[in-house]
From TrEMBL:
Residues 49-149 form the Methyltransferase domain. PANTHER family: METHYLTRANSFERASE, S-ADENOSYL-L-METHIONINE-DEPENDENT METHYLTRANSFERASE. CDD domains: AdoMet_MTases. It comes from the Bacteria. Pfam families: Methyltransf_25. InterPro entries: Methyltransf_25, SAM-dependent_MTases_sf. This is Methyltransferase domain-containing protein.
């Protein structure tokens, strides 16, 4: 496998961020809202934070820019994106990448945690999990978080099962914004980014590994898109307060809080 140089990795991550912004017109605003909540909700300068489905670490590094004393464990199962993140941010204080599949029972035991987690964040990742996997993941997550710990998920979560007209309007707001972004000259979309990455000799072996590991037969696509599915799974895992903290169309930050006292 070719050695991935930091500058090359940073260039690929910059391209990743640009194509992501094509689908998420307020991506930076979403990041800011998540980090604001971590800063205000953990109320400590050095929170331990898990970033689930971290990709190349875009959210993780922004969080550390704001909270340089934090410890962030960035978790993903995609070998190519993890390699980019590790190469680009090697030596970054407080940042550690971890290869773990959120669908595997006991995945938290592989993270090397030495204290309870203060906050868990995720962006545009957890909708890939089917509902049973989502429920199991939240239950395991609650077991490693401190009382009063925060869960913050930025994703496209729909209300079609309870408010179909509103759901259609939320989706329309997002789709129109996306069309405007690409009409204004976005250089590449999601598929074009992955095709280009696979064609880079330095990333080809990682792309092949990804095809075997991540994009295999068990990965069917968007599985859990309804807001009610995530809310019910969080409540079943013991989170006491669950609600939307920030929203643009059907792009929202869902926030959940573990109770300070155990439920009886």
């Amino acid at each position: 496998m070719s050695i991935l140089h930091p500058e090359q990795a940073r260039d690929w991550i910059a391209r990743w961020d640009v194509q992501q912004e094509g689908y998420l017109t307020d991506r930076e605003a979403r990041f800011t809202a998540l980090i604001d909540a971590v800063e205000a909700g953990t109320d400590r300068p050095d929170p331990l934070v898990l970033d689930l489905g971290c990709g190349p670490g875009s959210l993780s590094v922004r969080l550390l820019d704001r909270l340089p004393e934090a410890e962030v464990v960035a978790v993903d199962a995609d070998p190519l994106l993890l390699a980019l993140g590790r190469a680009a941010h090697e030596g970054r204080r407080g940042l550690r990448f971890a290869d773990a599949d959120l669908r595997d029972p006991g995945w938290t035991s592989t993270l090397g945690l030495d204290r309870p987690v203060d906050a868990v964040v995720s962006t545009t990742a957890l909708h890939w999990l089917a509902e049973p996997e989502l429920r199991a993941m939240f239950a395991e997550l609650a077991g490693v978080m401190r009382p009063g710990g925060l869960f913050l998920n930025g994703d496209h979560l729909e209300v079609v099962d309870v408010a179909p007209t509103l759901a259609g309007l939320e989706r329309a707001v997002h789709e129109r914004a996306t069309r405007r972004r690409f009409a204004a000259g976005m250089p590449e979309d999601w598929r074009e980014w992955w095709d280009a990455a696979g064609a880079d000799p330095a990333l080809a072996a990682l792309a092949d590994e990804r095809a075997r590991k991540v994009a295999g037969p068990a990965h069917h696509g968007s599985e859990s898109l309804e807001l009610s599915t995530h809310v019910a799974a969080l409540r079943a895992a013991g989170f006491a307060e669950v609600g939307t903290l920030w929203q643009n169309g059907h792009d929202r930050v869902l926030c959940a809080v573990l109770p300070v006292e155990p439920r009886t």
